[in-house]
Amino acid sequence: MHTGWLRFLLFAFLSYACFGWSESQLSPDSKTVLKAAVIQHVSNSLEIPADQVVLRPFHPSFSPPICPEPFAISFFEKSENSLLVECISADWRSYISVDITEIRDVPVYVDNFERGHLLTREDLILERMEGKFSKSLIDRDSLGMVVMKRPVKLGQVAATSDVEKAAMVHKLLRDVEAKSKLTLSNVKKVAIAESRATMNQIFPTRLIKGSTAARQLRAGRVLSRMDFNERKKALFVTENIRYGGLVDNTNTEMRSTNERVPANLVLDLSTLGRVQAVRLLRSNTLLRHSDVRPAPLVRAGEAATLTIEKGPLNIAVTLVALENGLMGDLIKLKNPDSGENVVARVSGVGKVVLPN
């Protein structure tokens, strides 16, 4: 009888132990559930493999509840290493830290490079590395035109903070005397940090062709637009024009010049209409807006045609202007046949009409 009782107790103990073991296998503890949820959230959010996310050790007293619903997980502020974990129904929350170890292809330098070196795609290779990397790594496939901001070493990880945007400038290869012609063989295009270049040093190469040195220039100089006179088209006076004389296509012409041209240079005489000189204009000088002013379309002492329309009739009478008149001006004229004075409106060069 005692033997049977002992067998019963042994069977009951083993059944309870097996039941407890099965329950522990089927129902993982809350720490394990929380850990898996956090790792999965970080993996999905940062788009990295789950095995690159490691939770930092919990404090011995850390004891999360068994949460009936999935834990609510969010990154704390802008951090990628601290997370807020909540069980809403249990009114429980805690902050958890993680370490992220990335395995990725990282750009590294293939040689030592000094400051100012123009970095190209061939200066970088990709190496598979493990660690925590900054997001500001150089993108080898969309490098752009950049130069080294500081010296770097062979094998060093290539960060965007190592480089800065570059600009192409023109360096003089040999000395050039003042007023001598500059040619493309005199210069070499080089890249420098954009922060070290002035606005006048950045210009298209075509401006050099046909230009002349504005002063004596030494080899090694980075050219500025102030160093040379570009070849431009400009309007020149071809003969002396007296004060008040008409300025038109008969006494001006377009020429190429390396002279420094004024800002108020006349480039198209046709846009000014009928103009006259405000001073004596000498031959072979540039024509400026300040050299001319609108000229009268009708001049005192000169003949003007008065057109009179009466029904189907169109009568033209020749009068003599008694005063100058611009377009639209009312002026006095004299009929040389009758001696009568009339008032008419200027309508064109040597033309007037009766006022309405």
Key phrases:
single chain, mainly beta, Type Iii Antifreeze Protein Isoform Hplc 12, 4-stranded antiparallel β-sheet, elongated
**What is the CATH superfamily label of the largest domain?**
Antifreeze-like/N-acetylneuraminic acid synthase C-terminal domain
Query: What is the end-to-end distance?
Result: 145 Å
Unreliable stretches covering 5 or more consecutive residues: 8-27
For the largest sheet, list the strands in their spatial order.
18-19-20-21-22
Along the chain, the helix and strand elements come as HHEEEEEEEEEEEEEEEEEEEEEE
Largest sheet features: 5 strands, mixed, barrel
**Broad structural category:** mainly beta
Helix proportion of residues, in percent?
10-25%
The total tally of domains equals 4
- How does the overall form come out from the CA principal axes? elongated
Our count of helices gives 2
Q: Under the CATH scheme, which class of the largest domain? A: Alpha Beta
- Rounded to the nearest angstrom, the radius of gyration is 45 Å
Query: How many beta-strand elements?
Result: 22
At CATH level 3, the topology of the largest domain is Type Iii Antifreeze Protein Isoform Hplc 12
Mean pLDDT, to the nearest integer, reads 87
Relative strand content: 25-35%
| Assigned CATH architecture of the largest domain | Alpha-Beta Complex
